[in-house]
Amino acid sequence: SRRGIRAGAGFWGAGGWLRGAGSGWRITSSTPGKSGLPGTAADLEKRKLIFGKNFIPPKKPKTFLQLVWEALQDVTLIILEIAAIISLGLSFYQPPGEGNEGCATVSGGAEDEGEAEAGWIEGAAILLSVVCVVLVTAFNDWSKEKQFRGLQSRIEQEQKFTVVRGAQVIQIPVAEIVVGDIAQVKYGDLLPSDGIFIQGNDLKIDESSLTGESDQVRKSVDKDPMLLSGTHVMEGSGRMLVTAVGVNSQTGIIFTLLGAGGEEEEKKDKKGNSLIAHLTTDGAAGANATDNANASLVNGMSRTPTKQQDGAAAMEMQPLKSAEGGEGDEKEKKKSSMHKKEKSVLQGKLTKLAVQIGKAGLVMSAITVIILVLYFAVDTFVVNKKQWLPECTPVYVQYFVKFFIIGVTVLVVAVPEGLPLAVTISLAYSVKKMMKDNNLVRHLDACETMGNATAICSDKTGTLTTNRMTVVQAYIGDVHYKEIPDPDSIPNKTLDLLVNAIAINSAYTTKILPPEKEGGLPRQVGNKTECGLLGFVLQLKQDYQPVRNLIPEEKLYKVYTFNSVRKSMSTVVKMPDGSFRMYSKGASEIVLKKCSRIINATGEIRVFRPRDRDEMVKKVIEPMACDGLRTICIAYRDFSSNPEPDWDSENDILTDLTCICVVGIEDPVRPEVPEAIRKCQRAGITVRMVTGDNINTARAIAIKCGIIHPGEDFLCIEGKEFNRRIRNEKGEIEQERIDKIWPKLRVLARSSPTDKHTLVKGIIDSTQVEQRQVVAVTGDGTNDGPALKKADVGFAMGIAGTDVAKEASDIILTDDNFSSIVKAVMWGRNVYDSISKFLQFQLTVNVVAVIVAFTGACITQDSPLKAVQMLWVNLIMDTFASLALATEPPTESLLLRRPYGRNKPLISRTMMKNILGHAVYQLTLIFTLLFVGEKMFKIDSGRNAPLHSPPSEHYTIIFNTFVMMQLFNEINARKIHGERNVFDGIFRNPIFCTIVLGTFAVQIVIVQFGGKPFSCSPLQLDQWMWCVFIGLGELVWGQVIATIPTSRLKFLKEAGRLTEKEEVPEEDLNEDVEEIDHAERELRRGQILWFRGLNRIQTQIEVVNTFKSGTSFQGALRRQSSVTSQNQDVTNISSPSHVSLSNALSSPTSTSAAAAGRECVFLMHQIYRDANSPSHSGLIYIALFPLINLCKTKQKPTHNSTTNTPL
């Protein structure tokens, strides 16, 4: 076994007393293995107490204080804090020259003692604003993290596993599994705990998540019975006795090691400790092994279902209830989901835009500060010819600090810190709401990518159809029955054969149960096609259960399980006379080709020639398929017991069959699907059906769904024909050939998972169309993993989908329904629009605030909008606006336009027109108020006020008008495509209404009671009315702007475009090198620990044996090389004195490292020379390993200058 409990140790399981006895395992049965644990609460509790729960404690989330600390790291906030502290310090410092007339341009009379003492308020207010911003940011991060954990636990609760308790087969959440349980494992499962295989057939496991080896491992009760958590069942079924759960399982051990070693390793990372380098050097094995698996996957050689599985147990661990289960700590999860793609179009565009805006803001703020300082210096020292007196220094410094604060404020307003917040809120809100629409989003950005989808490749069964199979036609005994035949019309012998073939040759977990509600349909449990066949048995007034009781599952002699290559399933049973009988069922055209006989109308067997088969295909199978039925052929074959056939030579076994019957199974189209597909087509999304069914069945269903319309120019082809068309003479796939097919392709029938992957890759890589296609794919089978991973958005089926498919997906459809995909498109487009709305609003405020602060500072030597007021405006813009505009619910109208595509700029011409148009209105009014406002309102001018003068009504009116204009412009910002009715659906978004009214209320409080901290003076009612009136003008002005046709404004530039040039390198990077984030690196280390330990022991034993026998140790090294890594070749050179340790990972190239490397080789050479002395073998064994590993990390291939041989 892979890992043993010490010999002699044992524990009590449902299968009896389990002992580790030296060489192998044995189960001494005392309770029947069939009935499982009794399932009593006391027993389960005791087991959890002794052996632990199937739960890995998650990493502790970051505390609120840690998040506050992180928020404080923001550069602009740090600058503001410093400025505020300097301002505070100077306000308390009373310099001797304060009262000196000759100091500065202070006009004396305007300030009294009390006001001078209030100088500290501005600094304190800035600090208070900073605290507000930090708390809001930290709270958002905290709630975001909480949401991720909620999502994680939701995914974990969805994860159920089948166990046997008290002789009942029940499904329980994986966290409830205990040691001693008997669990049923089947194709597509992700094992939630370690266990021993006790009964089953043809079980193959993909252990690449632990070992990095992509080959499937065959398990059997006597040879390799250990099943490990975190591995995938790729074929077969069976039962396992659970031996270890939670932190004691293989996955748990790795996570515990990661948890314990995480902090130490981080410290070591900082020191650049060579041990880690060494670990990762060895670990390249895992990465490389699975990279190779990936390469072969693309060629259809391997069905390992992962891209994310690259050498890591990354998402594999999910069923173990753990927030780490996904990707470690939730922030890392976010990071990894961002890493997953150049896919997230929005992220790329936003990053580019934010950088552009940030640069512009920086330039503006720098110019502002420079102009203010120069103006002050020239005015004071040149025009007024003042001297710089030592006692005046603090006064001047205070002025400079004030200018600096204004500059920083301009920067704060210019930089859109609210963008990431808006994206997060929008995505998180959408994800939450999408759950109600049956979309469980696993990767946040999948939701936004879906809005750009241009193609959907959908399965047929269960997605477009109801997945409720019923047999409606049958061909038995040379008669084609268009409805279920009367059992009396079928010979008894044929009927018995048919019932046995269906009852025995299907998973015993598949059953038909009575309906839950009276008058309802019987419940189908398990594989739906098999349920349809079992239903057929019941319709023939027969029962399948007595047959199964007579031949229980453990008596089945051999099972060839269904897979995408065989497209059939066969079960062998031993007859009472010792002979064998094999029952087969599968796709009719495939099984019929293997039939050489058929049962006729009297129940006798007659010869079935190829021409009979052709006639049957034409007269029976094609008409059934044209009615949209799935055709299944049921057959059998008898074998003699002497000699017993070689069951492993499958081709000799699955031939020469006798056909019993062919049935046509109906799977009706879901009633809502045709409308959903019509919506997709109207929205510019092409729907393609990719199915394993017969081409006629697929075409009939595609017509019913509306995927194809008679008379259109489209392509329906089978997988075989598809492969013939896309491959050249050498059998290689050519992109040009795919480009000729995919634009017209609507139905791909009889396709394998590899075909699906090829098609998806072909569409994504195509350069035939101007926009790169964004492809969504649905899948439910284990083998759909590669296609789900390759697609921009992978949808897995929540009900019919296997664990492996769910792992590979981005979104899980909890109701398996195609119309839920349409809702995902709607939400995706809504996210994109929400971000655009927010940008339109924020950029208007940015442009106005920056220009006002800049011009005001340059002309009046003081910004009309003070630092604290700017921070309040920033709060409105960033936090509140992102909340208000990012939570707009989607509408059907989103589906009336085509996808934006990857190259469409984030800020369209229309939006740019709105931004500049509203900016013009706001700037005109603010400058009017600034320069002639005091005359209009007959109040004192606030311009050129001295340093600590009281707030003026003049500047308060400007601030208040500015905020009112933003509030009403927020309503305008709800529409970004030039619509006139900006109030449309406003009451459907209560959050928006609350925020607008709330902001208005807070603004009243600030103006009336804000006083000195907010630089506000209380306003009269008439002044308030004017401010609101000017604000309302925004709505009228919005209508004026909407009237101007955008097409006329050719000079307007778009912004936030993602160009093709930028896209390509990113795509390459993500496709080939797949960035590894911190969590994944940690998980790789976990995997490395696993197979290093395993291989280390094997190699050490070989080295000892090799040295004992005195032979060269190249064999041992070669063994290490083949197991551990294709990257670190330990090549064998003809002369035994040369061993090249070439290391593909970059090593330090410094002279000291090279010297150390040469030293290693020299020492090894010495040891090797002494190898023939038996007395040295122990020393050699001890010394050699550290040296080999040291050399691996230190040595870069060095060449002998004379012979140019690698040392």
UniProtKB/TrEMBL annotation:
Catalytic activity of the protein: Ca(2+)(in) + ATP + H2O = Ca(2+)(out) + ADP + phosphate + H(+)
Residues covered by the Cation-transporting P-type ATPase N-terminal domain: 23-92
Pfam families: ATP_Ca_trans_C (PF12424), Cation_ATPase (PF13246), Cation_ATPase_C (PF00689), Cation_ATPase_N (PF00690), E1-E2_ATPase (PF00122), Hydrolase_3 (PF08282)
Biased composition (Polar residues): 296-309, 1118-1139
Record's GO cellular component terms: glutamatergic synapse; postsynaptic density membrane
Subcellular location: Cell membrane; Membrane
SUPFAM superfamilies xrefs: Calcium ATPase, transduction domain A, Calcium ATPase, transmembrane domain M, HAD-like, Metal cation-transporting ATPase, ATP-binding domain N
Alphabetical UniProt keywords: ATP-binding, Calcium, Calcium transport, Calmodulin-binding, Cell membrane, Ion transport, Magnesium, Membrane, Metal-binding, Nucleotide-binding, Phosphoprotein, Translocase, Transmembrane, Transmembrane helix, Transport
Top-rank taxon, per record: Eukaryota
Protein name: Calcium-transporting ATPase
Gene source species: Gopherus agassizii
